[in-house]
Amino acid sequence: MHLMELPREVLLGENLKDKVGEVAKRLKLGERVLILYGPKTKEIAGREVKHHLKESFDVHSLTIKKASMKEVEKTVEKIKNENIQWVVAVGGGSIIDVAKLASFKSNIPFISFPTTASHDGIASANASIKDLNTKTSIKAKPPIAVIADVKVIKTAPYRYLAAGVGDMISNLTAVKDWQLAHKLKGEYYSEYAASLSLMSAKMVIKNADIIRLGNEESVRKVIKGLISSGVAMSIAGSSRPASGAEHLFSHALDLIAPKPALHGEQCGVGTIIMAYLHGLKWQKIRETLKKVNAPTNAYELGIDPEYIIEALTIAHTIRPERYTILGKDGLTREAAEKAAKITGVI
Ligand SMILES: NC(=O)C1=CN([C@@H]2O[C@H](COP(=O)(O)OP(=O)(O)OC[C@H]3O[C@@H](n4cnc5c(N)ncnc54)[C@H](OP(=O)(O)O)[C@@H]3O)[C@@H](O)[C@H]2O)C=CC1
Ligand SMILES: O=C(CO)COP(=O)(O)O
Ligand SMILES: [Zn+2]
Which residues bind glycerol (predicted)? Predict the structure, then answer.
């Protein structure tokens, strides 16, 4: 049996900070709610969402600093102690992932209220928690509803929107890796999930000229793609359609670089290199990233080329069960240097 769980409502529009209660009532989520936000997202939208919820709900809140197991445990404890019935996450990928895992562990629903369009975890069923003995995402449940307020998301620096493009363009190489694993290792493959995931990547390439403007239409284009990409992961039952070798490269950078860049920025650069290894048109990918002003090389990522090479050589060790173009043995230092130089990454 293959279980596909998807959000029941997706709201995309302007001025939605007072709509969380309405959605919760419609979905009969209950009286007692826990709102999670970060120190910045509390000021950006969290405080106001809380204020509106207070009109009809028993509201509790927690400030989350990062996507760590300690924060997940703190949230689970709060849910238990206060007898919380549902959670709303107001923030970036880290806050949403903490809410996703904590609500999953507590067997209650959560609403995703993204403040950035920088990652495709907004509507996905998997959560990425850094110190969970694994550097990659694990299975949880998708949000019961997604409320994407374009005005809020537009307050984020433009860099976050470009990172969202990087996280989506990476679906091109992720799906290639998935097909490879299907053919070589007999891994389960869903043509439907793969097509949906590719559609998000193709849409950002097609709409790069609109996205680069950084206006409300740009945010709408990126958010819709990120939600579809998350749904593709839910259909597949794993992050396979949106995470291949380019994500392993980004996860490796998170481990070794003194100051990693944004997740989506690193995945975008990883996609250029992995597309080259797959024999895809990597120039077209680089061109799109350049068009939306996303980083395309080590310098723009703010990461020393030495870490780029090292990340390329250790990427295959991050999640050995996920077969990719890097194979079982990964890249030699020479091959890594060559790929990074040819693609202009170093
Ligand atoms: N589960 C999944 O399927 C996926 C998960 N991910 C995960 O998501 C994370 C990346 O998410 P990302 O959003 O890039 O980064 P973070 O959630 O880590 O946020 C980065 C910073 O941006 C701030 N911020 C959030 N919204 C705004 C805003 N509107 N204006 C100004 N600053 C803002 C945050 O504030 P504050 O300090 O208040 O939080 C934080 O300081 C990674 O951990 C990655 O692994 C990525 C893709 C898929
Ligand atoms: O970032 C993701 C998809 O964009 C999730 O992938 P991981 O499972 O590699 O963490
Ligand atoms: Zn990602």
Answer: 120, 167, 247, 263
